[in-house]
Fold this sequence. Notes:
Blueprint: E1 2-5, H1 9-17, E2 21-24, H2 33-40, E3 45-47, H3 53-57, E4 64-66, H4 77-82, E5 86-88, H5 93-111, H6 114-123, E6 140-144, H7 148-156, E7 163-167, H8 173-178, E8 182-183, H9 186-192, E9 195-198, H10 212-215, E10 223-226, H11 235-243, E11 249-252, E12 274-276, H12 285-303, H13 317-324
Parallel strand pairs: 1-2, 1-3, 3-4, 4-5, 6-7, 6-9, 7-8, 9-10, 10-11, 11-12
Amino acid sequence: xxxxxxxxEQLRQAVRDTGxxxxxxxxxxxxxxxxLAGLCRDVDVALSVNLPxxxxxxxxxxxxxxxxxIGTERIDVDGATELGVLVCNSPxxxxxxxVAEATVGLLVSLSKKLxxxxxxxxxxxxxxxxxxxxxxxxxxxxxxxxxxxxSGVAQxxxxxxxxxxxxxxxxxxxxxxxxxxxxxxxxxxxxxxxxVSIHLVVTAETRSMIGQDLLQLMKPGAFLVNTSRGxxxxxxxxxxxxxxxxFAGAALDVFAAEPLNFESPLRxxxxxxxxxxxxxxxxxxxxxxxxxxxxxxxxLAILRGEVPETVVNPEAIPLWxxxxxxxxxx
Length: 330
């Protein structure tokens, strides 16, 4: 059996160590559809490789597509489902922890005006009253999404004297109560929060969910943090809101299209008010190892003819079983 593996040599070696043949693929965006289709024609699993539907359709042996991260929006999940191919992600504990820690770090950076303070020191020599930040204690944190990462942020800030509110229609009241989080509707999060932190996955429901109407509700002194996915915010509305200073500032680790285009107007916003990082603020050696571990585990399960716990399109399972019920399994 063969596994198509992305450009990580560590990941490729980890697959080789299991005894399976590795087909090396270039990194994200470096391969055209025709070349990618040629690479996939004889592989059983694609690991850390983004595949569109037309390529999946040309891979008759393909059993699964596995990412070593949480997000699967670069993969045509619907197309894979229609063709009976499993898609799995790697929601490792290290990944959730890294994003939660990074989110708290960005909140602190914004509230303490760290970028302004550093720029003042480097250019003017010392600070002034204009560099003063604000306390997190006594402020309201609004979480949009109270899943594993949103909950992790709430847990880390539980002792900081903040009021924490959240919008998440899929979270039970007892879960929020255990976290000392007040569940509210979405407009209330934006209207009452001093800090709004986004923790959503991209779905038909959440795509561009945060637009002008919600952004206009934010307090003039409030801050927005997004460490989830850029597609959940109307980026044009966000750029306008920041340029016209509807609220105090933002920290953005994710964007609607990545890498962020050099011509994006977001790059021209005041760097002391707007922190931009390249979808890597939460990356750690531990999260990389955790994602790689889970990706390998899911890949091996698929090759054995088993359904991994990390499958994100369970509706594909019946056709998947039908396709490979008579296949040789290692």
